[in-house]
Design brief:
The structure is a single chain. The protein contains one helix and six strands; from the N terminus they run E-E-E-E-H-E-E. By secondary structure, it is mainly β. It has a single domain, classed as Beta Barrel (OB fold (Dihydrolipoamide Acetyltransferase, E2P)). Strand 5 and strand 6 form a beta hairpin.
Length: 115
Amino acid sequence: MNKVLLIGRLTADPELRYTAHTGIANCTFTLAVDRPYTNAEGKREADFIPVVCWRKLAENVANNLTKGRLVAISGSIQTRKYQAQDGTNRYMTEVVADEVKFLERPKEKKKSFAQ
């Protein structure tokens, strides 16, 4: 069974792209997930986990989420191999999200009144 459940905050705005040949939407972002314990200095550490989602979910995430938003992710872990420009093999491990739940409302922008 390959199932992942995460709750964390986006470290940056999501990046929406479309595949070259088929035009399928995909969205990538990094999720900061707090560890359940504190370190020797009493501070909580976090893991930074790359996430990708596809199709309508990708467009929904890109259009509605921004840096700092709290989300819950449900999906699976995927590892892929690619060749870098220098010819070395590289590996990428990421979470492929099947479901993204928005856990808080976006913060309201402050209104400025021109005088």
